Each structure stands twice: as structure tokens, then as C-alpha cells.
């Protein structure tokens, strides 16, 4: 999703801006640009495609300048093109923008009536034109930005420069993140701390409706009413090294292999031989959890699948009712909230617009409280939640989520155990489940050893147009996640079904051209799944089965292949079985030659609706 980097410094900033944009590439984008103030003029370069394409244009004709703004765009209004790429210029003003301006059409036609000529199809250009109009009326850049944002509906994070005020960048945010980086004798704006971490770890997070005015040696923040406000400086714990790709071919592969470490980090100091440790949800957390009589889980994409697994766990072990819903639906429907229901938002980034909006909407609906399960401590979702449980996956760069998912499952497993314990789950069973969870890093490590065999399986899939994933029980969401991974990065159409539903429709699709990928852990549903697999086999479908080594599954069940995995026990098996499905999607995508880390049309963090 769109990224912003801006700088007010003494040194030439274009190389810093380009480095910042590269650090944000993982978010997904389709064009890039930057503008720098130089000797009273604005110099701009923009290109469709990758940052490096814009960078080569810049390097062919570099320009100096200590004040600048830069952007990676993910198209919403208007196709990806140079003309629609940011920065947009109107008169003396250049501007970059993340978000969507909902009233842009009426603002645009008003501006056209007043004679403004637009050069792009974007909603962003409207803001540049409005700010320019205000400056023409004699306002300063900061006043012009304030006046303009007051007239906007929708979401924005912006950074603006003006030819008339060299050395100054003004930023503003509502519904999209923006922060200030405090350097030595220089200041920066960024939509994500990752963009600035190579320069500074001193970060000021802007609040909703803040307007920031930075120069080399000053930083001022104002509310929408124009009054100064004070925001604290934080030391970010992000490190630039954490985003190096190292020996791996792609970030996604690196992140898949980081899972044993990431899951171990999520468990650290949270679980011991006698169970889940106290206070992992904060001091008042346990008291609040004691009162919970039901849970509503809201999330998007992969995080939604983590929520679906948690439903199986919490209902089985804690006997509490759980509903799981995608955030974009929840926020626009009148959900019934029974008394003492806990609202849970799951989000890797903590900035997904739909999830954040759903959480804000939940405030109105009378929940017992809100819990954020998130990977980014400084994110909006975390800052606005009552309780938080961080997933500690470390930065995830690949757009297709992997270690974020398994660490979400780990955090949700801790929650399920805590609730189960409070609600009287048999003690021996509780301790047995805790032991399984403590072994999860090791079980994932074992699953990763299957990579060579999975590469062979991947070769079977590369010329297929479609694939069907099957699972039962808590492995159904794992099948959903496996199919999402495959479609995201290999562009093969994939669907997932609870295996028992096969006969109610998808069986019609099964023939020799339809590979069927099944997850078959050991457990009470195994026999049922075997019958479902026979139904596929009878129709000539090719079966790829990921089976628990403890499960009794005849090798001749399939026209296809069976790969055996030690699932590590019924409780943690969903997290373990996720790993081979991630590897399968990864290797299919590599063999098909797609852009694995930045698949087409997708963004890492979707900060617009
Ligand atoms: C985007 C990403 C997905 C992610 C989803 C939710 O669609 O491409 O990988 O699962 O957003 O993101 P979140 O940060 O809220 O978990």
C-alpha cells in the first residue's frame, strides 16, 4: 500500500528518500516518485513500476536539494501510470498522499469551475490544488494545509512542500498513519517507521487530525483547530538489519524459515511448565478475561484465518462462544453483542483500515473491552485497544503473510489456554496442551525439513489453472490459508472447502485436471476425511495429501502423493500443517517465475477501505 517519506535536512535528500521508499517496497505499490525543492524550484521524477525504475531516471539527471517528499503509490483512483504517480504539483505546491478522499469528486468539479486544470485522475491532485488556492489567498503553507484538510472527507496522510517556503515540509493525518523521525539537525516524515529506521530510531507518532510542520531544526505539531499539541518522542525498536534478505532467495522464504524463532519469541516469558504465566495481557487483563462470556474476532486476510482457527480452540477448550468475521463486513452491519463479549482485533500491521474502523465501531456497540493481537507495538490498533498481546514475529516484508500467521496462532493459543484454565478445563489436559504449545517451535522446524519433497510436489502444480484445498475441523482454516497463499503468489485459482462439504458442490469440479490438496492430521475426523479423499480419487482427481505421521492413511489412497508430517499433537497441528502449505505455494510461485515478495495488485498493509 502507498508509502510516504519526506525530509527537511541540510544534505541532499533524494538518495535518502529513495532508500526510504525501498524500505517500504514490501508494502506493495505500482509506481513511485519524488520531488525536491531546489533553488526556489520544484524538481520532480516519477515512474510507473518499481522504485529502481524511478531511481534510474533520477540518477540519469540527479538534482540536489535538502527538502523533499517521496511516495510509492498503490492505485485507487486512476490506473498505475506516470501521470497518476505522486507527487502531484499545483502551482507552487507539491504533495504526496496515502488514503482516499471521499468527497474528491465535488471538490474537483468546484475547482474546475474556478478554472483549475487537472493532469491526473487521482483524488490527491485535488488537495494540491486546494492548498495552492489557499496560498494564493495569502496563507502560509501550514495555514493552507489546515484549511484544506478541514474540508476533506475520507482518509489521508499527506506531506506537502511549497516553492515559497524552502526548508519546510508540512504533513497531516486522518485515518492513515504518519510519523515524524527526529534526526540530528534534520527532521523526516514517514508513513511507517521502517522508512526512516536507517536514519533515526527517534519517532513521534502523530495522532488523528494532527498537522506537523517540520524544518531542519524545528518540529511543531498542531491540532485541527490550529492550536499546538505535544506528542512524545519514542525510541523505535525496529532495526534496519531485520529487513535484510540474507542467504534467502526471497523475503517470503526467509520468513517461512524464521518461524521456529518467531514462534519461540511469541511464547517467551508467557508460558512455563505449570501453564500460561500471569499478566501476559497486562495487569488488569486476567480480571477482564474472567468476566468474558463470549468473543467476537474481527480481522482481514490471513489474520482472519488465524481467528477461524482460534474459534475451534476456544470453543473446544474454554467452552465459550466465538464468532469470527471479516472486518469489512462487520463494520457495516448491526452485529448483536451479547453481554460480556470481548472484541478481538487480529492484525499483523495494526494499520489495516477495515480492522481499525471495525475496532472503532466496536466502541459504540457495548463490548466488555477490546484486545489487539498484533505484530507492531506502535500501531494504531495496539494504541487504541484495552488489552494487547504482541506477536513478536519481527518485520514481515513478503506481502504474503507467513510468520505473522503462525505467531498469531501462537498468541491465540495462549489466549485459548488462559480462558480454558480460568473456565475449569481438566488440569492434566491443560498441562498437556501447554506442553504441546511449548514444542511448537521444534515441530515447525521438523516441518521445514520437508522442503526438498515439497519442491518436487510443486513441480506438479505449475501448469495447473485451479486447485482445491480440503481440511476438516481446525484444519479447515488451514486449508483456507493454504489456498490463499497459492492464489496470492502463484496466481493459480484456488479454493478451500471443509472436506465434508465436497459433495455439496465442488465435487462437480473434480477431474484429472483438478489437483486436490488435503490436510489430514490425526484425530477423530480422519476416517471422515478418508472417505472424502476416496470421493476425489473415484473421479480421477490428483490428490496431494499432507498427513500426520501418526495417522493411519494407506499410501495407495491417492493417485498423487502423500507427504507425512509430525503434527506435534492435536492442539498445535493447525500451526504445523500451515508450514508445508506455505512452502508449496512458495515453490510453485518460484517455478512459475512470479514476483513472490510483491505479487501483482496486492499490498502488505491495506490502509484504505
Ligand atoms: C493485506 C495483506 C495480507 C494480510 C491482510 C490483513 O491484504 O496482503 O497478507 O493478511 O492485509 O493485514 P493485517 O496487517 O491487518 O494482518
Automatic annotation (TrEMBL):
Record domain Glutamine amidotransferase type-2: where: 2-217
NCBIfam families: glmS, PRK00331.1
Domain SIS: 285-425, 457-599
Chief site of localization: cytoplasm
UniProt GO MF annotations: carbohydrate derivative binding; glutamine-fructose-6-phosphate transaminase (isomerizing) activity
GO biological process: amino sugar biosynthetic process; carbohydrate metabolic process; fructose 6-phosphate metabolic process; protein N-linked glycosylation; UDP-N-acetylglucosamine metabolic process
Compartments (UniProt record): Cytoplasm
EC number: 2.6.1.16
InterPro entries (alphabetical): GATase_2_dom, GFAT, GFAT_N, GlmS/AgaS_SIS, GlmS/FrlB_SIS, Ntn_hydrolases_N, SIS_dom, SIS_dom_sf
Gene Ontology cellular component list: cytosol
Alphabetic keyword roster: Aminotransferase, Cytoplasm, Glutamine amidotransferase, Repeat, Transferase
Keyword Cytoplasm: yes
Function: Catalyzes the first step in hexosamine metabolism, converting fructose-6P into glucosamine-6P using glutamine as a nitrogen source.
Subunit note: Homodimer.
Keyword Transferase assigned: yes
Positions in coiled-coil regions: none
Active site: 2 (nucleophile), 604 (for fru-6p isomerization activity)
Catalytic function, reaction form: D-fructose 6-phosphate + L-glutamine = D-glucosamine 6-phosphate + L-glutamate
Protein name from the UniProt record: Glutamine--fructose-6-phosphate aminotransferase [isomerizing]
Amino acid at each position: 500500500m502507498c508509502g510516504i517519506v519526506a525530509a527537511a535536512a541540510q544534505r541532499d535528500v533524494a538518495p535518502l528518500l529513495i532508500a526510504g521508499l525501498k524500505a517500504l517496497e514490501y508494502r506493495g505499490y505500482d509506481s513511485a516518485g519524488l520531488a525536491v525543492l531546489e533553488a526556489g524550484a520544484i524538481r520532480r521524477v516519477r515512474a510507473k513500476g518499481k522504485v529502481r525504475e524511478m531511481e534510474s531516471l533520477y540518477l540519469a539527471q540527479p538534482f540536489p536539494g535538502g527538502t523533499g517528499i517521496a511516495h510509492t503509490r498503490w492505485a485507487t483512483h486512476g490506473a498505475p501510470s506516470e501521470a497518476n504517480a505522486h507527487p502531484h504539483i499545483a502551482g507552487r505546491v507539491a504533495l504526496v498522499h496515502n488514503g482516499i478522499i471521499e468527497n474528491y469528486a465535488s471538490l474537483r468539479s468546484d475547482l474546475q469551475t474556478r478554472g483549475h486544470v487537472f493532469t491526473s485522475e487521482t483524488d490527491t491532485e485535488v488537495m494540491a490544488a486546494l492548498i495552492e488556492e489557499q496560498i494564493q489567498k495569502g496563507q502560509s503553507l501550514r495555514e493552507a494545509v489546515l484549511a484544506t484538510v478541514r474540508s476533506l472527507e475520507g482518509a489521508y496522510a499527506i506531506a506537502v512542500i511549497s516553492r515559497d517556503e524552502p526548508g519546510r515540509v508540512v504533513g497531516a493525518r486522518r485515518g492513515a498513519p504518519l510519523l515524524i523521525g527526529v534526526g540530528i539537525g534534520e527532521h523526516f516524515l514517514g508513513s511507517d517507521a521502517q522508512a526512516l529506521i536507517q536514519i533515526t530510531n527517534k519517532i513521534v507518532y502523530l495522532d488523528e487530525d494532527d498537522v506537523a510542520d517540520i524544518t531542519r531544526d524545528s518540529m511543531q505539531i498542531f491540532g485541527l483547530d490550529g492550536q499546538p499539541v505535544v506528542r512524545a518522542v519514542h525510541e523505535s525498536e525496529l532495526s534496519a538489519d531485520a529487513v535484510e534478505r540474507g542467504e534467502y532467495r526471497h523475503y517470503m522464504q526467509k520468513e517461512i524459515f524464521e518461524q521456529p524463532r518467531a514462534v519461540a519469541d511469541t511464547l517467551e516469558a508467557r508460558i512455563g511448565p505449570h501453564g500460561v504465566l500471569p499478566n501476559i495481557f497486562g495487569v488488569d487483563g486476567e480480571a477482564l478475561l474472567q468476566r468474558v462470556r463470549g468473543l467476537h474476532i474481527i480481522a482481514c486476510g490471513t489474520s482472519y484465518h488465524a481467528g477461524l482457527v482460534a474459534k475451534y480452540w476456544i470453543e473446544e477448550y474454554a467452552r465459550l462462544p466465538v464468532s469470527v468475521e471479516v472486518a469489512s463486513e462487520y463494520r457495516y452491519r448491526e452485529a448483536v453483542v451479547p453481554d460480556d463479549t470481548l472484541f478481538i482485533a487480529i492484525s499483523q500491521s495494526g494499520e489495516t483500515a477495515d480492522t481499525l474502523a471495525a475496532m472503532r465501531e466496536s466502541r459504540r456497540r457495548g463490548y466488555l473491552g477490546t484486545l489487539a493481537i498484533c505484530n507492531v507495538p506502535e500501531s494504531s490498533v495496539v494504541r487504541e485497544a484495552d488489552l494487547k498481546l504482541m506477536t513478536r514475529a519481527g518485520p514481515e516484508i513478503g506481502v504474503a503473510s507467513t510468520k505473522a500467521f503462525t505467531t498469531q496462532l501462537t498468541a491465540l493459543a495462549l489466549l485459548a489456554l488462559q480462558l480454558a484454565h480460568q473456565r475449569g478445563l481438566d488440569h492434566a489436559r491443560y498441562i498437556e496442551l501447554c506442553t504441546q504449545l511449548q514444542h511448537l517451535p521444534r515441530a515447525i522446524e521438523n516441518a521445514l525439513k520437508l522442503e526438498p519433497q515439497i519442491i518436487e510436489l510443486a513441480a506438479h502444480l505449475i501448469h495447473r489453472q485451479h486447485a482445491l484445498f480440503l481440511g476438516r475441523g481446525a484444519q479447515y482454516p488451514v486449508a483456507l490459508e493454504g489456498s490463499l497463499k497459492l492464489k496470492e503468489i502463484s496466481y493459480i485459482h484456488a479454493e478451500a472447502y471443509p472436506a465434508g462439504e465436497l459433495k455439496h458442490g465442488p465435487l462437480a469440479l473434480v477431474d484429472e485436471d483438478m489437483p486436490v490438496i488435503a490436510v489430514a492430521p490425526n484425530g477423530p475426523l480422519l476416517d471422515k476425511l478418508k472417505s472424502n479423499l476416496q470421493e476425489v480419487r473415484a473421479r480421477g482427481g490428483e490428490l496431494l495429501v499432507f498427513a500426520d505421521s501418526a495417522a493411519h492413511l494407506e499410501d495407495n489412497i491417492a493417485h498423487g502423493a502423500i507427504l507425512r508430517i509430525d503434527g506435534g499433537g492435536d492442539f498445535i497441528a493447525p500451526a504445523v500443517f500451515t508450514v508445508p502449505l506455505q512452502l508449496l505455494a512458495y515453490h510453485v510461485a518460484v517455478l512459475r517465475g512470479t514476483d513472490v515478495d510483491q505479487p501483482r495488485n496486492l499490498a502488505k498493509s491495506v490502509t484504505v477501505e
